[in-house]
Amino acid sequence: MKSFRNSPKDILNTDLYCITAETHSNGRDNIQVVEEMLRAGIRLIQYREKEKTMAEKYRQCRRIRELTRRAGAFFIVNDHVDLALAVDADGVHIGQEDLPIEAVREIAGDRLIVGVSTHSLPQARDAVKKGADYIGVGPLYQTFTKKDVCAPVGLDYLNDVVTHLDIPFVAIGGIKAHNLADVVRHGAACVSLVTEIVAADDIGARIRDLKAIMCNATQSSTRIDS
What we know:
single chain
């Protein structure tokens, strides 16, 4: 049986954490979008789909698991630990209203990386205490990708995580090309931009542009720090 728990930091050792969002993908299905992401060099994919039946989610996740394995990419399933296990995903990502970390660990053991969405420093500290492998930090800005999302937490919360916690994290929520550099300069090395990528006419070109923005922001921050 595989186990990723010995190297949880590896999964976020990348710049862009890509998440599916079929309703925002300009008529493309999740499989088409993931294929384009992987061709552009993405090495971390999360399947997030709220509207489909479990049978359709399973079908799509099975295919995405094949694609990510062939590309050497990590694969995370949102919300559903049972689905993540069924398709042999690398991890599961849960929110504050989903199964608690302890229950996920009881079900999955060491077979899955567990990521947790957090919106405040107390939530982040609680996730660390309970054994999360990484956390989502956000939503930093207003976002319309998810329904019933909480109010933006802003860059102050990102600063708190960078300053006070030692856990891998992904910055998420309302991040676009125009504010991406600010997010990176505030300490985010791994960032998720959902509609900015899946809604692009040319996903590969958009990913290359975003990677360049992140690289330039990192280099400018390094020059300032030195």
